[in-house]
Amino acid sequence: MRHLLSAGDLTRDEAELILTTAEELRTLADRPIKKLPALRGRTVVNLFFEDSTRTRTSFEAAAKRLSADVINFAAKGSSVSKGESLKDTAMTLEAMGADAIVIRHGASGAAHRLATTGWTRAAVINAGDGTHEHPTQALLDAFTMTRHLAPEKGQGLDGRRITIVGDVLHSRVARSNVLLLKTLGAEVTLVAPPTLFPVGVETWGVETSYDLDAAIPKADAVMMLRVQRERMNAAFFPSAREYSRNYGLDAQRLAAMQEHAIVMHPGPMVRGMEITADVADSDRSVIVEQVTNGVAVRMAVLYLTLGGSESES
Amino acid sequence: MPAQEAIPSTGGREVLDARDVSRALSRVAHEILERNKGSEDLVLLGIPSRGVPLARRIADKIAAVEGPSGGVPVGSLDVTMYRDDLRLKPARALLHTDIPGDGIDDKVVVLVDDVLYSGRTIRSALDALNDIGRPRAVRLAVLVDRGHRDLPIRADFVGKNLPTSVAESVRVRLTETDGEDSVTIVDNPVETAGEAS
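Above: the input entities. Below: the structure tokens describing the complete assembly.
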């Protein structure tokens, strides 16, 4: 695996390899010395043009636990504010010897551009490009679901029903999850108001619904998405209150879920909007565990891209 | 996908059959107990893949000798991340590591592997143990020692010493992984020009 740009690029075997590798790496968190030497001497650059709490620190922790050197680049404190382009930024990092670049950018397609133009020879890992994809989030979500819904070895997510609720239109998490979950054999249902479905969603191979209460009882996992206000420049619903009444996960809806079904959220949550505080903190919610799993999954991705010799694939 | 595939039984000359393997493991189990003066504080860690079933068999033989109170914890130690040739091939799938609940601090860890050859795997295992804890002692039990060490490493307990040439390979097959117990020596295929090893 040379780059990780899209969840859709992964075959089922590749995805399962990442998940089983992450399973082995997860036990590292229980050891007193949380370090493995696999990426010693490699340099991983976190190239983040957008704000991030979880993803950036998660990649940083993952790289450091594999003994890599980490350089954090935040657009706000850099020459990007003076007008420097992605190309020049990439060439500067190349000149400093980056082995891998983890990029989060506001423009869809930025990761692909970085990987294919030849500005840098580093491995490129997409940490979220615009509204397009966020493959490591989908991988850690699938990892979390597998731990709860298919704990026996060898069981995939075949036949599992996953419901994703919220701002699908602007959500790279939704896109990557749909692609990966289908590769792993799950059945996906998307629930959103009509204004928050992208044009062409009927070609995605998923069920769509405007009715959250109808979808909830059938789900093995319910994933709530934040309303991406920062990407909206039109009115998509009359008021936040109406949105959260119709599409928010509250205690009543939680009670309508199956007993084994889990509540997920990629974060950051807006408590009271798409999810109430009591649901977010309930024991059915695996939201905090998703974050822990994120480090293990990102360690697996970094190891498989950088841990061996460079492979062309 | 990952882990190892069963070795088919083709060619080569058999040097150990199923009964020889069993007798060798019994002797190794007794030697471990003799050296340790009992089974106290012993932890057996098999190195995947074939070291793991061997470790379990040795633990079973120890339990048969020492009785119910003489049980020894068994685990596995994957050394993939600590290999010194990690960068020479594409990233390898990780195998399973399972350290028994009481850990390895102040225990006598006995590493178990099928074949001892260059010694690099064991060096990796020692590095891996260093990051997990501090054993009182580390010993090495192998089914076969075929010589040709690249590093100053030696086994404490050896099932069979097999002098071999570098042009040969030692194939260990075990019931748990390959369907039967046998150790055979086969000649390596002749490399044609341009083939990478």
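Note for the figure: The first strand of chain B starts at residue 13 and ends at 16.
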